[in-house]
Amino acid sequence: MSEFPTALSDCFERIADDLVVRHWSVQERVLPDALIDQLGAICHALWHQEDLTPAAVGPAGEELIIPSIRGDYTRWLDDCPPTEAGAKFLQIMDDLRAALNRSLFIGLDSFETHYALYPPGAGYRKHLDRFKGSPLRQVSVVVYLNRAWLPGDGGELRLHLEEGAHDVAPRAGTLAVFMSESIVHEVLAANRERASLVGWFRRRPDNPLLR
Length: 211
Fold this sequence. Notes:
This protein is of the alpha+beta class. 26% of the residues lie in helices and 29% in strands. The chain has three helices and eleven strands; from the N terminus they run H-E-H-E-E-H-E-E-E-E-E-E-E-E.
């Protein structure tokens, strides 16, 4: 478990309850400030070293880079040099995976995650995180790494819900969790660099050839 196991355990229970009732959850200041700062520094260092690459849209084998649809730059965490901060983040996510399995019985088996940085003006149009014919992604997770984020900075995560749009400011330490197959969402353009870690809990494929 991480530095605050009791607080995290309570937070994970709230997330599980929210996913049952409304399929999404937003929790603020979940991860320790020091860890958020370390992860943010890594993301920005990758960006300034040109070690992030333009993100693509579309299913595996059919990916296209279309900045007008999706403008972020990414790098998978498991493709980055190992760091203590990265290992702590993965441990917290594994604790969340175990908690969701205990509460929801959804058979989450693994977690994939990447750094994502949106330059000023970039966004990501409305989409779902699960492609048709590829049902492995079950739960989407976003952790924001942006200190001193102000309302005028933009960059909100907009969840398109039955009751209307709900915007989530990308402030440092905020954790957004939602069901990958049912929550349509988008990223609004920001006026400054916007950093996050984005990931998906996946279930084990019924067919071992399905990835």
